[in-house]
Amino acid sequence: MNHFTHCLKVRYPEVDQMGVVYHGNYIPWLEIGRSTTITNFGLTYRELEESGVLVVVTNLNVDYKIPARYDDTILVVTKLSNLEGIRISFHYEVYRLSTEIQQGSKLMSDEELQKTLKDSTLLITAETEHVCMNRDNKIIRLKRENPEVFSKFQAIHKTSQGYTE
């Protein structure tokens, strides 16, 4: 199976006076994970919007386990977990790494991810649910309204589930 990952450093503006990441600052990390995941398949939010497809968050669930701290090296692992009907769901795991790796996005194999996560700490798990809408704010069935974009989401979903073309 392949895993979509994004590595970043906790920046000073993301923490409070105790050096702990403010709970709302995890949400942009999820957005980074999601947007870099779809970008890996040649699709950007700008292109989605230009084609008339808006991907709207309808639900967000975060399970906070241990706080991130200033200057931690963070790895966001993103998986497209559901692609049915009008709903698209993503699952996230955010880790504090025990070793430095290059910042940015990367598609990792199971083996590479396990090696990277050795001695790491799981900080949060999260889920987001989305629907696709048109510019008139009407929910659309992506498979019918924009089959080309839907096929890219299918490829992401298959890769997230361990299938290869």
Automatic annotation (TrEMBL):
Pfam family for this entry, one? 4HBT
GO molecular-function terms, A-Z: hydrolase activity
> What InterPro entries does this protein's entry cite?
4-hydroxybenzoyl-CoA_TE, HotDog_dom_sf, Thioestr_dom, YbgC/YbaW
Annotated Thioesterase domain residues: 18-98
Source organism superkingdom: Bacteria
Tell whether Transferase is among the UniProt keywords.
no
List UniProt keywords, sorted A-Z. Answer: Hydrolase
Enzyme Commission code: 3.1.2.-
Q: Which PANTHER family did the record assign?
A: 4-HYDROXYBENZOYL-COA THIOESTERASE FAMILY MEMBER, NOVEL THIOESTERASE SUPERFAMILY DOMAIN AND SAPOSIN A-TYPE DOMAIN CONTAINING PROTEIN (0610012H03RIK)
Q: Which NCBIfam families match?
A: YbgC/FadM family acyl-CoA thioesterase (TIGR00051)
Family in the record:
Belongs to the 4-hydroxybenzoyl-CoA thioesterase family.
Record's protein name: Acyl-CoA thioesterase
Give the species. Answer: Alicyclobacillus fodiniaquatilis
